[in-house]
């Protein structure tokens, strides 16, 4: 072999083993809007979900930052580190004599989020963005409102543009244009907006500017706003409103006049939107966000963690602030023998009916069939009954149609027994029913099926295990009336919540999904206020909302929870004659206040 050939081979090997240069990254300046994640643009949500590295302003809400990297696979090293950390917690719990495993911490995500330092010069922050992009990474610069309306962010964009690094800007909705709409104020085609907290204001010019005025400010700016506008000729009786936590479920709007604005004594946090002018009077007609039936109510959702999401979303649509408290976790049976025999029985035609009483039962049978390489075709020749619409829909997702469901107004175990056929030996060649359900199922269903002449294989398809107690703060809120309502979806959620956290306070409205859940609550000494006609989650939430709306209309809402801190005498003094007392929209105190 020649020396020249050997050198060429070494050069070739070096070239092929060297990694190709990484493509250049980019910087995405994304507007988070006024706060509510529902107001993010489609493009903003897409970029956030698919990007792991982000530099985020401090006033961007957690509900927005949670979207970052949600579609990015979590690196294996992060998952492994989380597993090791949890194993260490378990060992420490064992060593301390604990009888339960510690709760699992939140699952790791791929997100690498850095909080932006407001005191850092924009050029220095931009330099770090540029460095990250030149390393081949895409980095999101997430800011509240709209990036192109913020001076500091414009300086960052200018620096990135001058560096030659690729960038894009995704606009967001601004506070002045959205918060008044959420407060029910019709701004009309012409209005004037300014940020009193950051800009030098020409008050004389502002007084003569087209109204309404939409001002961004902090609480400490209110006295200045009122004093300057009045001293420059605006009447004290000019209507005004102050909105805090705009567009979120914590939003509160207070109606005042320019003359009483400085005296507004309310819990006002963060950037406020102050609207001034006759347009404020339109709130009586157009207020919609704060007038929803459960607005501001803190509602306890005791469910299995994997099942709480849809219920929380429906509560939020009615204006509630749901608090999910896992009371049970779903575990496989202690032994697989029962389920394996049942699968064999399904395939061999040993059952005339399979009765599903929950979505979880459908999942358990589906998964066990899949373990044996079977699918929905295994159900050939077997009739399927489902206790409710949601369970029936889950059966349909397997490509099957249930032969039997109770009427819409009786979708519970009792309703199922009322429509279930009697076994007739001359007609039914097989007289056995498979009942795959939780380990704590009611005996009433088995007894009812036997009375109809059927043999029943009542098997444990999954176990419901009581969850670890919630935090001390949550337990205290449950016992002292910090929650306005609690919505129970099964007898086990009632028993487990009381077991791990105690009974809800007497002022808390209690809703139960159906008769068996209602009875479980009453057996524990709880008063049940709401039971929907149809035993499903949407009907439960809607019935709770309707009940609260009816109580409000009749002036019979439970009194607000008293604050521990004594109020000052000045706060309880009657207002002077002729003054307009600041009132939150809807005339309703904040939930839990």
Automatic annotation (TrEMBL):
The EC number(s) this enzyme carries: 2.1.1.107
Positions of the Tetrapyrrole biosynthesis uroporphyrinogen III synthase domain: 311-541
Key word S-adenosyl-L-methionine present: yes
Domain of life: Bacteria
Gene3D superfamilies on file: 3.40.50.10090, Cobalt-precorrin-4 Transmethylase, Domain 1, Methyltransferase, Cobalt-precorrin-4 Transmethylase, Domain 2
Bias-annotated ranges (Low complexity): 109-119, 572-584
Any GO BP: methylation
Domain Tetrapyrrole methylase: 26-261
Swiss-Prot/TrEMBL keywords: Methyltransferase, Porphyrin biosynthesis, S-adenosyl-L-methionine, Transferase
PANTHER family named in the record: S-ADENOSYL-L-METHIONINE-DEPENDENT UROPORPHYRINOGEN III METHYLTRANSFERASE, CHLOROPLASTIC (PTHR45790:SF3), SIROHEME SYNTHASE-RELATED (PTHR45790)
Protein name per UniProt: uroporphyrinogen-III C-methyltransferase
Organism (species): Corynebacterium otitidis ATCC 51513
Taxonomic lineage of the native organism: Bacteria, Bacillati, Actinomycetota, Actinomycetes, Mycobacteriales
